[in-house]
Amino acid sequence: MTMMEPDMALAESLFAQLRADSFDGVGITRDTYGPGEQAAHDLLAQTARDLGLEIRRDAALNLYLTLPGQDRQAPAVMTGSHLDSVPRGGNYDGAAGVVAGMAVLAGWVRAGVRPARDVTVMGVRAEESAWFPVSYVGSKAAFGLLDAAALAARRADTQRALSDHLATLGGNPQAVARGEAALRPEALDCFVELHIEQGPVLIGEGDTLGVVTGICGSHRYRQAQVLGRYAHSGAAPRGHRSDAVVALATLIARLQDAWRDMEAAGHELTLTFGQVYTDAQQADFSKVPGQVSFCVDIRSRDTNSLRQMDAHVQGIAAELEAAHGVRFDWGATSGSQPAIMDERLQAALHAAADAIGAPSRSMPSGAGHDAATFSNQGVPTAMLFVRNAHGSHNPDEALDMRDFTAATRVLGQVLGLRAGIARAGAPIAS
């Protein structure tokens, strides 16, 4: 091992403490702008304090942990990810990227290495939109892009506004609403985010690491409904029904066909109906359902594919309204823009993986990540996936520490190159 190996003992300790602080009896819950996420931020800040790093928070309470460089005015190298989780999720989604960055900096600190430019690990707030119906809250706020409407969004469980949660923890929602930016694209050399893979590709193909080519954008209907008419299940003949469930089932079936046709035509996208439910108080075994709620999540790296699938959604729904005597109420929409990863950074990640013998492959990210915000602001951006059994957003995330060590070494090598460290243990002279 070289003198600049990442501190993997620290990484294991951080993972263990994060789990201890946020285990809910079933999985991991680090609630956005709540006690769970805050405990994680406090832990990482204390770790940075112990290492002698600079600690800064912005108006949205994003956390910046910096090893100062020789030239404090040069654009900074940045890595990191989010520290919140979905309810009853896993311990590694998001947190792995922050822990990896801290392990790299800890190794440098203990080796006495000072980079040519600042290197910052960012603990991003509020990436998981399961809590608030807004994509990339923390990273958008960091660039001054989060508007007043987003701050008014209510958390799914507490029904308190985002601004209220932020203020309670000591943030400044007024400054966020004014668009006061903590980050400027021209002040950043790059952003590299390490993250567990959230699907089965790397495990299935036998690769350890994935170098992300692009991040999918999304178009979402979070609170849609089909409104029909309740009727007696025995007394209402088929031709006299306005059955909301049948209308929605037909929509789902026809959109599966549309999705298949689009894939055959070369489109790359996904379509998901993640929630479908009738009113527990009104629906009944002996009633024709007059209302059903659902959500739609469309994702693609191509905005044209997003628009085309949404056109199918709206066109088919209009036909079904006439055929079934129902009405589709779509509610508010939300979504995010696709993002392309920097080709030079992709090549550097592949080269670093090759150098340590870690099998890697190029692949898209179907899930959204804060790296998309950085890329769309013009910052050279890359993502490194590390394989993970059992997917993510569930308690069974299973990150092998040998794989994580390989990924952290690759991350450290690329950060070092960008920060002015020519090779392990040898800083470039200023």
Automatic annotation (TrEMBL):
Pfam families: Peptidase_M20 (PF01546). Its EC number is 3.5.3.9. GO terms for molecular function: allantoate deiminase activity; metal ion binding. Its cofactor is Zn(2+); Mn(2+). SUPFAM superfamilies: Bacterial exopeptidase dimerisation domain, Zn-dependent exopeptidases. Binds 2 Zn(2+) ions per subunit. Zn(2+) 2 binds at D93, E128, H393. Zn(2+) 1 binds at H82, D93, H195. Keywords: Hydrolase, Manganese, Metal-binding, Zinc. Homodimer. Belongs to the peptidase M20 family. PANTHER family: ALLANTOATE DEIMINASE-RELATED. This is Allantoate amidohydrolase. It comes from Orrella dioscoreae.
